[in-house]
Amino acid sequence: MVSRNSRQSSLRTAVGVLVALVAIVGTQFLGWEWGSGQLVPTVIGAAVAGIAVAIAANRALS
Q1: According to a count of CB atoms within 10 Å of the terminal CB, is the N or C end of the chain lower?
Q2: How many CB atoms lie within 10 A of CB 15?
Q3: Residue 41 neighbours by CB distance under 10 Å
Q4: What keywords are annotated for this sequence in UniProt (predicted)?
């Protein structure tokens, strides 16, 4: 049986890999650059940062 923490860790790892792949494809093939005023990379970055803060806060409060 897989524990809840193991499943959460696997899910977080999968999400992290997916975000990294989106960042690589975006910068290499779609011309995304930080600080260039483009909306998509800014929205993705802000969303990922928010998720990271929520996970860190959840861990700190547990």
Answers
A1: N
A2: 13
A3: 20
A4: Membrane, Transmembrane, Transmembrane helix
Length of the chain measured in residues: 62
Contacts of 38 (CB under 8 A, 6+ apart): 32
Question: What tokens were used for 15?
Answer: 């999400």
Residues 35-58: pLDDT tens digits? 777 888 888 878 888 888 888 888
Distance between CA 41 and CA 35 in Å, rounded?
Answer: 9
pTM, to two decimals: 0.60
Structure tokens given for 3:
């524990």
- 3-state SS track over 16-51: HHHHHHHHHHHHHHCCCCCCCCCHHHHHHHHHHHHH
